[in-house]
Amino acid sequence: MTGRRPRGYRYGQWHGGPDPLAPPYDLGNAVDEIGDSVLGGSGVREALRELLRRGTEGRRGLDELRRSVRERLRNARTAGRMDGTLEEVRELLDRALDAEKRELFPDPDDAARLAEAELEAIPEDTAGAVRALKEYPWRSPEARQAYEQIQDLLRREVLDSSFASMKQALENAGEQDIQAVKDMVADLSQLIDAHNRGEDTDERFHEFMDEHGQFFPDDPQSIEELIDSLARRAAAQERMMAGLSPEQRAELSDLMAQTMSDMGLASEMSHLQDALRQARPDLPWGQRGQVPDGEQSLGMGDATSAVAELADLEALSSQLSQGYAGASLADIDEELLERALGRPAVDDLAALRQLERELERQGFLNRTDGKLELSPKAVRRLGATALRRVFATLDATGRGEHDVADAGAAGELTGGSREWRFGDEQPLDVVRTVKNAVLRTAGEPRVEGQRRVRIGVEDFEVVETERRTGAAVALLVDLSYSMALRGTWGAAKSTAMALHSLVTTRFPQDAIQIIGFSSTAQVLRPETLAELSVDTLQGTNLQHGLMLARRFLAHHRDAEPVVLVVTDGEPTAHLEDDGTPFFCWPPMPETIARTVAELERVARTGATVNVFALDPDPGLIHFVHDLTQRAGGRVFEPDADRLGEYVVADYLRVRRGRRAR
């Protein structure tokens, strides 16, 4: 019987992608920073955008990257003037004419005088002069050389403005080199035409690059990359021309047309330009954009490169700003970013993208129909953070400040114990009491070889119990626009999140409902509250908020009813009999009457109604004092930064208060 050979295993470094055993991406600080912004009154999308603008620890954010791009942009704007080719052609033309006139002057022949007259009659504009001298029989070798330099310069500059680095490639080019360019342009036009028709051009592209790759030092890897590079440069050439004065533009256009015609490329280059437009209609063809303006004169090729760089930097700056509708980190062009700021900037962008992905993958953010929301997991963390901050500032007046701890039939063990105090009726925690005595007497001498443990009063501990005082809490939060104007909206949102977290995590036998009110009122889920901004509609419809609170309390008749109201203004809106909201400022007597009537209905349920007034306006204070007297409640006037402390402490006090009596 032949057995199977045992399979061998080898262990080594993982190369199949992300390490599957790596710890999850640490999002704690990021979630807390988003939470800080949300608790400060921002929406979730705004909070995430702020985080991406600031960046994470050790990584630049979008704002810093954009500042670096703007610095590059300022430098690019002073790269030089666009008329460098025209100036160089004029200088060479003047040199040629001066040399030819010096050659003709000593010659007494009539032919020399006719040649001088011909030179005097050439057009004044540069392009016209270059055209008029095309067939002129130069006598001076220096003049002939200068004119030939003009033709060579124009060939190289004109092609360099369409194909980057062509100026250097065609220096001192012969007929064979020019023919190679013509063949390349013809093949390129056919390739782009095929691409525009939707044909599969992958194989043709690689054949084209094998034959003509020397003309494309940026080494494009696909037909799309090739078209993108050429189309951007062609569009930049148009913007460069648009940046010239009308006279300069006319002269340079004439020189370009002459040069293309002389090279036999006029028709092919025109066709190529049209094909590039068809392939990339999204580029700003024919639009006048920013052009460099500096002391140095730039040739056509360099000027086109400078204009293209300006356009790229402007586009990159806009992408990094994320200030347009539907903006996304995916919009940022990594290639442009690397060209502008180097590889470290791309790594910083990758870190921001990973952060955004991980927030969704690990369940802190949900994206539904393009809308970004905090997940229940993130809301729980957010509420816990808000609550932690409240308790950090809450001035406790004893253990009973946070809960009711006593014995009795309604008592329930909390699992803790505390020192016995005079008057306590809770049962002794025997184990802890004896342990305290043993520890206290551990150093005392033994008596007849035995240790006697003497229990003292200071050793006693009693078992803590919690009275199950179920409460139904309705928290009414003003959403009117004045809350944002006074800077109190963030504190109100944070307070609501903290109270919701406290009730749901520490007092699960209680029930809570958060109600927002402006022109009308609405019940708010914690996830909705986190994303919510204040209402830009006018109105403080406390009446409607109290109606919703009364319905909520009716579903919890066996619980202690608690109504807490956070507002910064008198009621200015109410619901008409048909349910239509009505607004008026100053408040109408009918609005006040309907609000008071609804409050009295709430008071008849036995609810405690306490109001937290965030504006010291005497009219508001007088109104809420009158309101709370009808319901046996109280008025608090906290600073906004202590609102959470006041509300949570009052909830805890009311929760234990009435049934404990």
Q: Can you walk me through this structure?
A:
This protein has 661 residues and is an alpha/beta fold. The chain has 25 helices and twelve strands. The protein has helices at residues 28-39, 44-54, 62-76, 84-104, 110-120, 126-132, 141-162, 166-169, 175-196, 202-212, 223-242, 246-263, 266-279, 300-321, 334-341, 343-361, 376-393, 430-440, 481-485, 489-506, 526-531, 542-554, 589-603, 618-631, 643-660; strands at 365-368, 371-374, 411-419, 461-467, 471-478, 511-517, 521-524, 560-567, 573-575, 581-583, 608-613, 635-636. Helix 7 packs parallel to helix 14 and helix 9 (175-196) runs antiparallel to helix 10. The radius of gyration is 41 Å and the shape is elongated. InterPro entries: VWF_A, vWFA_dom_sf.
Describe the structure concisely:
The protein is α/β, with parallel strands linked by helices.
Which key phrases capture this entry?
alpha/beta, 5 domains, 6-stranded mixed sheet, vWFA_dom_sf, VWF_A, 661 residues
Distance between the termini: 88 Å
Mean residue pLDDT: 80
Strand order of the largest sheet: 7-6-5-8-11-12
CATH topology of the largest domain: Rossmann fold
Q: Name the shape in a single word.
A: elongated
